[in-house]
Design a protein that fits this description.
alpha+beta, Signal recognition particle alu RNA binding heterodimer, srp9/1, 2 domains, four-stranded antiparallel sheet, 3 helices, 8 strands, about 35% helix, about 25% strand
C-alpha cells in the first residue's frame, strides 16, 4: 500500500482579495458609523439609529471572513499509510488525530455524506467528518480509505447515510 498525504490547507487568497475584503468591511463599518452620526449628532429625525444595525452586521460578517482568509491555520493534512490514518484539521483549534489500522474492526461509509465511521475492536466508534474539506479531496480521501481497508481485509459497510443516533 502506498502512503498518501493530502494537504488540507486551502489555497491562499491573493493579497488583492484580502485587501478587497478588509476594504468592504471598513466601508460598511463607516456606513454604520455615518448613519449613527447623522441621526444622533446632526439630529436628523428622518434617519433612525436602528438603520445602522445592517451595515454593522455586514461589516462584522465580512470582517470574520477576511480574518479567516488572513489568519488561517497551516499544516492541515490527512495522511493514510500502511500503519495508520492520521489527520490534523480544524478551523479555530486544529486537532491531530491518529487511528491505527490494527485497532479498527469495521468501516461504515455513507454514500450521501462526506463521513467515514470507524468501529474499533474495543466496541467504540469515531466518525471522521470531511464535510469542511473540498469535495475533490474528500472523495479522494474516502476512496483511499476504502481501498486501504479492503487491502487490510476489514469489513466495509456502505450505507445511504449515517444515523444521528449512533
Amino acid at each position: 500500500m502506498e502512503n498518501v498525504y493530502y494537504s488540507l490547507s486551502e489555497e491562499e487568497f491573493s493579497k488583492g482579495r484580502k485587501i478587497l475584503l478588509w476594504g468592504f468591511a471598513a466601508l460598511f463599518f463607516l456606513a454604520g458609523a455615518y448613519v449613527i452620526f447623522v441621526s444622533l449628532i446632526l439630529g436628523q429625525k428622518s434617519i433612525s439609529p436602528v438603520l445602522s444595525v445592517a451595515p454593522f452586521g455586514i461589516s462584522l460578517v465580512v470582517s470574520v471572513i477576511a480574518g479567516f482568509a488572513t489568519f488561517k491555520g497551516t499544516n492541515l493534512f490527512f495522511s493514510i499509510d500502511k500503519d495508520k490514518i492520521e489527520y490534523k484539521f480544524g478551523i479555530l483549534r486544529p486537532l491531530t488525530r491518529s487511528f491505527q489500522w490494527i485497532d479498527i474492526k469495521e468501516l461504515i461509509m455513507p454514500r450521501k455524506q462526506k463521513k467515514v465511521k470507524l468501529i474499533f475492536k474495543d466496541g467504540s466508534s469515531f466518525v471522521i467528518n470531511l464535510t469542511w474539506v473540498q469535495k475533490k479531496k474528500s472523495s479522494l480521501i474516502r476512496k483511499q480509505i476504502f481501498y486501504a481497508a479492503r487491502e487490510k481485509d476489514l469489513n466495509v459497510t456502505k450505507v445511504v447515510t449515517l444515523s444521528n443516533k449512533g
